[in-house]
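Submission sheet (multi-component)
Chains listed below:
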Amino acid sequence: MKSSSLAAKAFAVFAKDLRSEVRTRYGVGSVALFAVTSLVVASFAVSPYALESDAQSAFLWVVLFFSSMSGLSRSFVKEEETRTSLALKLSAPPLAVFYGKMAFNFTLMAAVELIVVPMFLLFMDVSLKSYGLFVVAIVLGTAYMSAATTIVAAIISKANSKGTLFAVLSFPVTMPGLIMAVRMTNSALAGLGVSSSVSEISGIIAFTVMVTVLSSMLFGFVWND
Amino acid sequence: MFIKYLLGIWMGAVCLAAFVWAPADATLGEISRIIFFHIPTAWVSVLGFLMCMVYGARYLRKRDEKADAAAAVWAEIGLLFIVVATVSGAIFAKATWGAYWSWDPRQTSIFVLFLIYMAYMALRSAVDDPERRASLSSVYSIIAFVTVPLLVFVIPRLPGIQGLHPNEAIISNKLNMDLRMLAVFMASLAGFTGVALWMFGLKMRLVGLRLSDKAGAKEV
Amino acid sequence: MAITVVIDGVSRRFGERTALCEVSATAKPGKLLLVTGRNGSGKSTLLKIAAGLLRPSTGSVVYKDGTDDGAPELFSDRIGFASPELSLYDELSALDNLTFFGGLKGVKGSTSRAEALLKRAGLLDRADDPLSSFSSGMKQRMKFCFSLMNEPDVWILDEPTANLDDAGKGLVYSLIGEMRRKSALIIATNEKEEVRLGDEVIELGR
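Outcome: structure written.
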């Protein structure tokens, strides 16, 4: 199979998921609502004091992690619940499904972050000096999370008790990337530039590539019953 | 049968030697004796999950239900050892650094391994169909295991990560470790590994009996 | 190239339960394989194994097309499959569903192919309506359109006339009549009058 047609098929899967999501807005809505609620609660509890930058950074990633947990299993779980996974299995090469859904997960989280991160900066009274590193930290952290959790989402979509199981299985797998992302965000909030976090940046990129390649090799075993 | 007695005597000797024959470390004092139990059990708990992953990979290649049973057995054994390692580590931490737990990178990585074990068990209990349970848990064990070297080796080496674990001290002193300490340490390492392998063998015999029982019942 | 499906000694266990025991049969163009048996006798399981969706516990299914022999998975783009479990996307329109799946299967010109199939199935006037507005009979017809998008060399149907009125049944029978000459057909059914369609008939669960 030509790789360009694999990319086109992955894109088709991504586009279909995206179109369904845009139509209903259910996923983005519920995830963003969860994130915003957590933000509001924390901000309210802490105000009028501002947290230290390392606490702020930790808090941001706690909110993003749990928001991901509420949203990133949707694309697989929905296929199982609406029984459309059989049609997909009959039509698409497994890797197209994997990459398409991974791209969708990344996009979903990015959309939620577009709402939540500015609110975080506002509510938590964050003085941001190092925009570059901050954005890099969020993008790379999200990339790692979507790469690591896509296969886990596929796994739990075929099990019982999907909701809590997804968080339980995801946490150990996301930890390495989360640690890096928190450190980078911390540096950014402390005013340090991209150059201070080179080892974290290369680390998280390496982890993301590794976990993506490994997941793509194993995905077939999960997808094909 | 012979193995059981050999292991029993060996571990008995190790325990005795750990408290009587080997000297206590100069700087750490008597509490350093815990090194003979904490490090070998931590090592076996990592080995246990490695074996779980290896058998999982074998299941995916060969679809052999015995391989999947073996993976589950290693998960049980590893879980036991990691609890021992974590508790003994916490005791050491309290005695030396004043707190049972401080999220030192090594402590974090052993805790995450503990979470991985629990997650693996949770996954297995959440799938009814045996073949699906085997494939899903095999895939998860491989994905999860890959994070262990990252947490144990890569992250603690990042610049600026402060650790309490006497990494440098132990590694540079390893060769300088009193020969008697080294001997007991190595013996303990071998002994605990032997105990784990013996437990595995025992459990697998049970599994073998159960599987052949099922096969026999089917033919009837 | 026409494909011959060879099912050889296939058994399938689910945990303790044996769903299929040493089933052998063949299907090829001009030789329609019909599978019958009471509910729970393993018809759906056999069809899934024949389509490469499930692995057999023992035995094998081999597709032979003159040049290559292999497992069904290797020929997945030449298989068409429809069963009661199959479901398409309710939120998409009929046409969008077919073009989506057609694109994934690598079908060229999937839009015109989809329109032709919808027309044949009598659904062209509903092409832009979401599947959620379709009756069960219309959804059943959609399944045939789905399974025929890639002009399959192996066409596998599990209980094809379920939910269909006489017009629908007529459609199915005429499609079968057209496809049976060029493609290998495997059909599972409970309907007694459909058993006559089969050139080779096997009954499961005896």
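Remark: The first helix of chain B runs from residue 2 to 21.
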